[in-house]
């Protein structure tokens, strides 16, 4: 039960403190590691164009394995030493590790910065702030477009930033959480479908798809339940989840977006610009309500309920698996 205790403490720390803006934050260090290894690997690419595609893909595979090994072995070794010193020391260290891989409060904090700018009708600042949490071009977004971008990010990252890390923490401990975050961070940095990363980032993107396959679906269903708990449209959340959860180029991204759109009775997604190019995307949800900045508050309320519900469900399942073998039931 040490792992469960550590996860509960780590989750509480995340709710209280959020992500520290610290250059030595482990996830930032993983990001620096990814960038440095990429630079080293790219320096060895062959000049012949016909060999570059294979070389880039191979280098991308090497990057994934190197980063994952380092990001997993280091916390695993640290935890081994901590628990050898004393179980209490181990729990403290593992709690801090769990805290570092969860991002529920930081997601709320960053999206609420967008909300405050919109409430002040400062669209230029709102575009600048939302550009820090989305991948699309934001310089020409309208007030509605900025709001949609923020809501979509909150909805999608409930899976990537909360439910998926929680699942891997419960299954494999803090090392599992760092394994997941390493792959997810590589996907966010390398998984672009452009000339630079089409081949180099392909393996990282596929790995991220595999790791998020189950968590994204769990997160979508949890969000449907959470919609009812927060006074939002639960029936709409389930209906749109069933109908629109596959309307995305990624096999995982639309599950929570669809549930959120249905719960808030708004329409998300649609066409967007990335790196100056228009990308045509299907819409998610029905435009039953006008999209206003208040949707960001509702999305955050829904994300908190989803995250806490996920923690409760995973904790109960873990408790049952621990309880049954020791009681003979």
The proportion of residues in beta strands is: under 5%
Poorly predicted regions are none
Query: In DSSP terms, counting alpha (H) and pi (I) runs of 4 or more, how many helices?
Result: 11
Number of strands: 4
The overall average pLDDT, rounded, is: 91
Q: Would you list the SSEs in sequence order as H and E?
A: HHHHHHHHHHEEEEH
Strand order of the largest sheet: 1-4
Distance from N terminus to C terminus (CA atoms, Å) equals: 18 Å
Percentage of residues assigned to helices: over 70%
Report the principal-axis shape.
globular
Q: Number of domains in the coordinates?
A: 1
Structural class: mainly alpha
Alpha-carbon Rg, integer: 20 Å
The biggest beta sheet, please? 2 strands, antiparallel
Any overview of this molecule?
The protein has helices at 2-17, 26-42, 49-85, 87-101, 104-119, 123-130, 143-190, 202-229, 234-244, 254-264, 294-327; strands at residues 268-269, 272-274, 277-279, 283-284. It is mainly alpha-helical and 329 residues long. The protein has one domain. The strands form two sheets. It has a two-stranded antiparallel sheet with strand order 1-4. Strands 2-3 form a two-stranded antiparallel ribbon. Helix 1 (2-17) packs across helix 4 (87-101), helix 5 (104-119) packs antiparallel against helix 6 and helix 5 packs antiparallel against helix 7. The longest helix is centred in the middle third of the chain and has 48 residues, at 143-190. The protein is globular. The model has no long low-confidence stretch (mean pLDDT 91).
């Amino acid at each position: 039960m040490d792992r469960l205790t550590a996860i509960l403490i780590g989750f509480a720390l995340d709710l209280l403190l959020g992500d520290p803006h610290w250059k030595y934050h482990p996830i930032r260090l993983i990001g620096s590691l990814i960038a440095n290894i990429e630079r080293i690997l790219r320096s060895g690419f062959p000049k012949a164009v016909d060999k570059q595609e294979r070389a880039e893909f191979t280098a991308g595979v090497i990057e994934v394995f190197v980063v994952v090994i380092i990001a997993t072995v280091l916390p695993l070794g640290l935890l081994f030493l901590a628990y050898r010193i004393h179980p209490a020391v181990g729990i403290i260290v593992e709690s801090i590790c769990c805290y570092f891989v969860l991002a529920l409060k930081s997601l709320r904090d960053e999206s609420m910065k967008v909300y405050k700018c919109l409430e002040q009708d400062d669209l230029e600042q709102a575009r600048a702030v939302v550009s820090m949490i989305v991948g699309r071009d934001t310089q020409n977004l309208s007030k509605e477009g900025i709001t949609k971008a923020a809501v979509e990010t909150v909805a999608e990252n409930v899976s990537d930033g909360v439910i998926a890390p929680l699942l891997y923490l419960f299954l494999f401990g803090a090392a599992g959480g760092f394994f997941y975050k390493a792959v997810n961070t590589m996907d966010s940095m390398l998984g672009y479908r452009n000339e630079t990363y089409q081949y180099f980032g392909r393996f990282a993107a596929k790995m991220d798809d595999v790791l998020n396959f189950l968590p994204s679906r769990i997160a979508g269903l949890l969000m449907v339940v959470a919609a009812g708990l927060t006074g939002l449209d639960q029936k709409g959340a389930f209906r749109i989840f069933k109908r629109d959860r596959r309307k995305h180029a990624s096999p995982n991204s639309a599950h929570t977006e669809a549930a959120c759109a249905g719960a808030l009775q708004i329409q998300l997604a649609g066409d967007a610009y990335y790196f100056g190019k228009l990308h045509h995307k299907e819409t998610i949800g029905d435009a039953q309500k006008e999209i206003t900045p208040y949707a960001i508050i509702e999305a955050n309320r829904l994300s908190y309920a989803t995250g806490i519900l996920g923690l409760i469900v995973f904790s109960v399942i873990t408790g049952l698996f621990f309880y049954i073998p020791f009681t003979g039931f």
